[in-house]
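debug: dumping io for the single-chain case to check the tokenizer round-trip. Nothing else runs in this session.
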Amino acid sequence: MSSRTKFLLLVGVFVVPVAAAYMAYFGWRPAGHKNYGDLITVTPLQQTEGRLLNGEAFGLERLQGKWLMVHVGPAACDAGCERQLYLMRQIRIAQGKGQSRIERVWVLTDAGTPAAKRLEDHPGLRVWRPDSAAFARQFPAPLSAADHIYVVDPLGNLMLRFPSDPDPKGIMKDMKQLLKASQIG
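debug: decoded output
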């Protein structure tokens, strides 16, 4: 080999990895991953004071450090609401040892009281009524917040919304990835 070829080969050994790293960081993005839920603008929840169904004062900041799966809707639970509560319960259970990192919250948007039978079917579900009606308006939705399951991160930020009539496998996959990637909660 000539000295020029050796020089170009030596330069290539050092320049090619740097150029590849630059392209990977600034330009090339693999299309292999897509989360099921809709990422929404991360927003810290405001006006988090309220009461549990038994009348006990309870601020949602007491749940910081946990991932929250949230259903927002009236006490009169229709078939869509019942399915969401069921999915929230089953998806939490399906996380195995990670289920202790997830809390389920039903945010009531009216003055009604849910049926006792429904609450018996969902042990551990926190039924919570905010002190301010403005709390429910923080949950963005194309039509109604009651159509979706939302995820709040352990720092109290609203961050993810699952579609109406969700696919349980998609939700399970997203929750598993969140728990795996998170060092908090």
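debug: round-trip ok. Residues 18 and 71 are 48 Å apart (CA to CA).
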